[in-house]
Specification:
Layout (H helix, E strand, L loop, with lengths): L1 H9 L1 H18 L1 H6 L1 H28 L5 H32 L18 H9 L2 H7 L14 H17 L5 H22 L2 H16 L8 H25 L4 H7 L1 H10 L6 H10 L4 H14 L2 H17 L6 H17 L6 H12 L12 H29 L5 H9 L7 H9 L17
Helix pairs in contact: 2-10, 2-13, 4-8, 4-9, 4-10, 4-15, 5-11, 5-15, 5-16, 5-17, 5-19, 6-18, 7-17, 9-21, 10-13, 11-16, 11-19, 13-19, 14-15, 15-19, 16-17, 16-18, 16-19, 17-18
């Protein structure tokens, strides 16, 4: 019985869940105290971001260098980007359909002249600073080493890919360095597990700040929009992502149970990046090859933002409906086209969901950007749902792309998902990172996820 109690208390899922509940309680009962706890959440997220760069670099380099067929790398990248484009577009379509059917902003009758545009001016300025060309150029770091200090995921990914390909081309001469990098990878993931001991503190601080700063009462006036967004995201995950998962041979519900610790961490911190290292580790444990995980997951954090896309289409329609602006079918299609591009242009920017929305509305003049002031108060409450949906979407993407490549051990995947995703032991973590099972077999010729 004592052993069971000790195991129960040491479970990250339970610790984070208790921390979130305590954060909500503190923020509600003592708002000033809750608002002052913001540094706890910020510090934890900063610690995780500190380790993300070496995790991506080492995972991608050791994965690519261990591949026998470098031609498979280009095929994986093309399939991943194609999948991202399709799912991102579907997310926008779902948001538009639900927004037109539910009409969460109808009846508010807001006069645009009464809105204070100064509240959203900073987001509009950041939106204007982003562009597709600027985004592409920003992928290239100023120097080789600046990629590791800038915090830009795509810059790290570019350098990692080049380094991994070059190391693979060295053949036997690079084996010693590859072995050393695998050992360093095991050390880095051990650091990840050490940092995760602080996850409950970070989740407590972030949740206490959100409730204390914005107050649960701010949800009342815009409860319709928030509820519609959460239900739409749930619909997207269960129906669309669930359907894709079923075609790929696994259950979306089993995957969610497997990733429950990470999902609670994302919920508590409102940041999907906080759980990226653990996601990559668990996907490898579930049978997805390291090269695919290392490429798909970091890239998806910039290109596969399903939750953000649902939010953009719903929020834009809400603002238009609240101001009694009827958008034609053509205007809504323009809105969707701009959103597809702007969501890539602002990827990786702090507060990207709100910034992308500003960038989209600034190009579609039918909806005034000042209308964003209507949802500024509840944006923080919707950021958790954006992050959770983005996180689940990228987990599904990695498994699906791996299935397309015929590179998933389905027995290992089903066993991992059936095990409900217990935390990795230290021995499992070391074995996972040092194990030389990173080869991706050639595609079997079938592009069906269920093949």
């Amino acid at each position: 019985m004592a052993e069971a109690g000790r195991t129960w208390w040491r479970n990250l899922y339970v610790q984070v869940l208790i921390a979130i509940a305590l954060g909500i309680l503190v923020g509600w009962r003592w708002p000033a105290v809750g608002a002052s706890l913001k540094p706890l959440g910020d510090a934890f997220i900063s610690l995780v971001k500190m380790i993300i760069t070496p995790v991506i670099f080492l995972t991608v380099v050791t994965g690519i260098a261990g591949m026998r067929d470098l031609g498979a790398f280009g095929r994986i990248a093309a399939r991943a980007l194609g999948y991202f484009l399709v799912m991102s577009t579907l997310a926008l379509v779902v948001g538009l359909v639900v927004g037109n059917l539910v009409r969460p902003g109808a009846g508010l009758n807001v006069d645009p002249a009464t809105l204070d545009q100064s509240k959203v001016a900073s987001y509009v300025d950041k939106a204007h600073e982003t562009s597709i060309i600027g985004f592409v150029l920003n992928i290239i770091p100023d120097t080789f080493f600046s990629a590791f200090t800038s915090g830009e995921i795509l810059q790290v990914l570019l350098v990692s890919i080049l380094f991994g390909v070059a190391l693979a081309m060295l053949g036997d001469r690079g084996e010693r360095l590859l072995g050393t990098l695998k050992v360093i990878t095991a050390i880095v993931f051990r650091i990840v597990h050490i940092l995760m001991c602080l996850a409950p503190i970070g989740a407590f601080g972030a949740m206490a700040f959100t409730i204390g700063q914005y107050g649960i009462g701010t949800l009342v006036n815009l409860a319709g929009l928030v509820a519609t967004f959460y239900l739409t995201a749930l619909l997207f995950v269960v129906v669309l992502l669930g359907g894709v998962a079923r075609l790929a041979g696994f259950s979306i519900f089993a995957l969610i149970r497997y990733l429950k610790d990470e999902l609670l961490l994302v919920l508590g911190t409102s940041s999907s990046e906080s759980a990226m290292p653990l996601l990559m580790e668990k996907l490898e444990k579930a049978g997805c090859p390291k090269p695919i995980v290392g490429l798909v997951v970091p890239t998806g954090y910039s290109f596969n933002l399903d939750g953000t896309n649902i939010y953009m289409s719903l929020a834009a329609l809400f603002i238009a409906q609240a101001m009694n602006i009827d958008l034609s079918f053509g205007q809504q299609m323009l809105l969707m086209a701009v959103a597809i591009l702007s969501s890539k242009g602002a990827a990786g920017v702090t507060g990207s969901g709100f910034i992308v929305l500003a960038a989209t509305l600034s190009v579609v003049p039918a909806v005034p950007v000042a209308g964003m002031a209507l949802i500024l108060g509840v944006d923080r409450f919707m950021s958790e749902c954006r992050s959770l949906t983005n996180f689940i979407g990228n987990a599904v993407a990695a498994i699906v792309v791996a299935r397309w490549e015929g590179a998933v051990d389905m027995g290992q995947l089903r066993a991992a998902l059936a095990g409900a995703g217990g935390e990795l032991t230290d021995r499992e973590s070391d074995d996972l990172q040092i194990d030389d099972r990173s080869d991706v077999p050639p595609a079997t010729g079938s592009a069906s996820p269920g093949s």
